[in-house]
């Protein structure tokens, strides 16, 4: 099977979550299929088992012309390319972009931002009406996207007769972890910021997106300082590969550092960490920290960088609200606080600084990591591609009418209207 995998994000040595997901899954699909990755930076990848092409609209049209399947996150290319596709369309919606937009834009969006929200909603409706398979990252996300699929007519009688639980149409494919363990480095964090060997290090692991709350972590460090506890907090403050327009949360965190006098304890690594180097940073830290603001984004999020913490067996202090935070607290590989609760986050961090508690959390992280392997996620995608595609209604035909004669539908409508007229008599 010829599979084209498109990514709107940049791929290469430095990648954010969407690029990482595409590269890792494409590697594993290439063991059984002919895979071409189309993305900005794709040709910089060397030694990969798949073919690569730099993204351009004409390039994507050309490589999909004879493709058996196109896998895409749905954005960053002309919509007509997907709607005219002869092969299967596999829509990877693990990252609910419209909820990120709502969290980023806030309660008073500009006219341009409102236009963007409307465009994303309309494009998603069109893609979901056309998709042969949809991928998501968690059961919570699956419930969310089932609502969308029902709204665009994809859960009609004909579709559910072939796929009663809609598992072929909508599959849970979590973000994953490499099979090989992380490799230690030469102490890049302590060396970069002159952190004493005896001082514990907390790593705010993940981007400083505007729906996150890095300033809360700064306030938690201040609370620990006031209790006489030494802790150094390191943020990854580098610009996102491919462009970064979200700086409000990062600015707020830097302002909190200055206001609380924490310049000697809170540090910003002002570069994006290459994908191959992340293991060394994780292994050097004593715990990871992540915090978000209350939002729908948080409820539906699958915080992919928390999986890196499982990979490195690094305990996590986090705010409640998303799927992995719930798992961390329930399974013991992390400690949680309510969103906005700086004192609660400080208590969570303090609990994980206890050596015995940290070792228990590390053991729990090692056990939990077995659920999240890229090989397992790839197998789900491979099963979908190996099976016949589920029924797909015509774009302008609601799923309830799929397979039914237009004359029969018109007759049923007329009979229903006549009975209503008689009742009103």
TrEMBL record:
Residue ranges crossing the lipid bilayer per the database entry: none
A Pfam family matched in the record: Glyco_trans_1_4
GO molecular function: glycosyltransferase activity
PANTHER family: GLYCOSYL TRANSFERASE GROUP 1 (PTHR12526:SF635), GLYCOSYLTRANSFERASE (PTHR12526)
Protein name: Glycosyl transferase group 1
Organism: Anaeromyxobacter diazotrophicus
